[in-house]
Amino acid sequence: MTGSVYQSDPDQAPDAGFLPGELRHLVAGNRGRLLDLRRTPVLVTRVSPASGFFEVEIGAFEDAGAHWLVPLEDVTSYQFAAGGRVASRRPLAELRAAVARCDVRVSVAAGQVARARALRRLRAERSRAAAWLASAGAPERFDPLPYLETGSGWAEAAGWLTSYVASRDLAGLEAVFSAGYVSNPWAGDLVLAHLTVLAELGLGPLSARAIRDPAAFAGQWSRPRRAEHLLARTGFAQELWARAAGPVTIYRGIGLAGDGRRAAPASQLPVVSASLSHQVAESHFGSGRAIAGALYRQPLEPGRVFMTFLETAAMNRQYAEAEAVLLAGRGPFF
Fold it and tell me: What is the pLDDT of residues 103-128, one digit of tens each?
């Protein structure tokens, strides 16, 4: 992988021209920026005290045009252009009441019996995926190096996954979930509900905000359907990576911003995002805006794979991160 990993604006305005995000700034039409390391510009498009979210449209970079549902209390992770409108007394009171009602955190940690049952189901899914891959003509061994060098995924593997989940009547869940995870796993409740089910299965603990959408587990997104999708796509990805020839290294780079924002409660997810590209991890670690950073590496264990850029088409549309999402480990780093 060569060149810049992420898009950015070298001429971005200084923070001094913006106001720290507060509930009063949540008025449709206001412009602001996410307090990430590259100050992603956003437009507030909708504010919903009833749901506990506000919606922003991303104004630049890889996710330009995407719409994210952001928890109201996370307004402190944004800054807003001076001169924008502010909420009047009654709407502001509604927003404060919504935060008091919705800002609830939960923890999910299934017991050993549930975990053992999930691992048995996952072994069965791997066997099923192995048989399917063999019938589809997938090689028993493949060299991952060309895909790691380009970070562009394996088109055949993406096609196999699409066909495999379609054969299980799970194509719709896969398309929506993978696109949501890639863009912003914290947006709305769709991805969070999937990760909640993953924790309920016993494949990793979760500590995060509570689900807010009462329909999050309705229809095709019911808990059994979500569980079936999670196990099917995990079994497929693990079996695919079990065919990789030679050792594979994964990396994780962390850059910590020093912008003085409110310290958010620590969240723990049953998955962790890393990269199969040292350059991508280095870009997180070495950001000029970061006040501190860390860079980790370890061998890839196929039995921990949840989804990767190799077989997930959504990971290769707007990003070139060579991303690997792993089931959370018990080690000190990832």
Answer: 999 999 999 999 999 999 999 999 99
- In this prediction the pTM is 0.90
Both structure tokens of 259 = 């912008």
Q: What is the pLDDT of residues 241-266, one digit of tens each?
A: 999 998 999 998 876 665 544 445 56
Q: How far is CA 188 from CA 24, 236, 321, in A?
A: 21, 27, 23
Instruction: Quote the tokens at residue 56.
Output: 């922003």
- Taking Cα atoms as reference points, which of 203, 176, 44 lies closest to residue 114? 203
Characterise 268 by phi-psi region: left (phi > 0), alpha (psi -120 to 50), beta (else): beta
Task: Please state at what angle helix 223-241 crosses helix 190-201, rounded to 10 degrees.
Answer: 80
Ordered by start, the domain boundaries in the chain are 15-103, 106-327
User: What does CATH list as the number for 15-103?
Assistant: 2.30.30.30
Contact assessment for residue 44 and residue 56, using Cβ atoms and an 8 Å cutoff: yes
